[in-house]
Task: inverse folding
């Protein structure tokens, strides 16, 4: 059994959760864009104050959302997670972000709805592009994570014979394009640290850790800096 701090910062939502033996004992969530750098460590401090776990040194591991997702968000979450692991001498667990989103979607579905269905978590990228994958009901990967530009042919071959649930902050812009009777969209599904608990516990039990020194998030695409259009002269 492990007492694990779960950190999720891959999108606009900043969230943390404590889990003990896979059960969430406390959580903090902030739905505020661009808040990760200023609020993540504060959320962690508040988490311990309200959880009944008096000291961070009692942690057995830290789990962090590994991407894909926001370049800046992932870097902040990973940096904080590494810092805690270094300080306490505990292992680091990396959890695929799209799998985290899928576990959140499962909570909105019945077992009957999940049966014989496929699941496509989507993280919003630029324009009509999303980061996505395709999972089965037991979280097996049917199609690996990729950056996909959505058009009328997207998922067409799988939709012929399968009901597919689409969700995540990239799914809304796909509703009008992926127009098929087997396509079902679930609203208000975001990656949350509370939905990492079972995944991080399983990784802990299997000693499935990443190297604290060398681990880097799965950005999927290189960071592209934007240039301000303001005139400085």
Result:
């Amino acid at each position: 059994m492990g007492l694990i701090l779960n950190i999720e910062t891959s999108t606009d939502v900043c969230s943390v959760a404590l889990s003990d033996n896979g059960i969430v004992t406390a959580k903090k969530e902030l739905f505020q864009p661009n808040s990760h750098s200023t609020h993540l460590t504060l959320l962690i401090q508040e988490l311990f104050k309200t959880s009944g776990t008096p000291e961070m040194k009692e942690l057995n591991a830290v789990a962090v959302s590994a991407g894909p997702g926001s370049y800046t968000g992932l870097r902040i979450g990973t940096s904080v997670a590494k810092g805690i692991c270094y300080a306490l001498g505990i292992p680091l667990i990396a959890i695929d972000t799209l799998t985290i989103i899928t576990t959140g979607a499962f909570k909105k579905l019945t077992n009957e709805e999940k049966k014989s269905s496929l699941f496509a978590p989507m993280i919003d990228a630029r324009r009509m592009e999303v980061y996505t994958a395709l999972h089965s009901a037991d979280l097996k990967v049917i199609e690996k994570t990729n950056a996909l530009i959505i058009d009328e042919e997207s998922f067409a071959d799988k939709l012929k014979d399968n009901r597919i649930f689409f969700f995540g902050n990239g799914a809304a812009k796909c509703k009008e394009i992926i127009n098929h009777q087997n396509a079902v969209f679930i609203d208000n599904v975001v990656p949350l640290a509370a939905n990492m608990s079972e995944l991080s516990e399983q990784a802990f039990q299997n000693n499935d850790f990443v190297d604290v020194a060398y681990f880097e998030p799965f950005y999927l695409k290189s960071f592209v800096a934007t240039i301000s259009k303001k005139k400085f002269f």
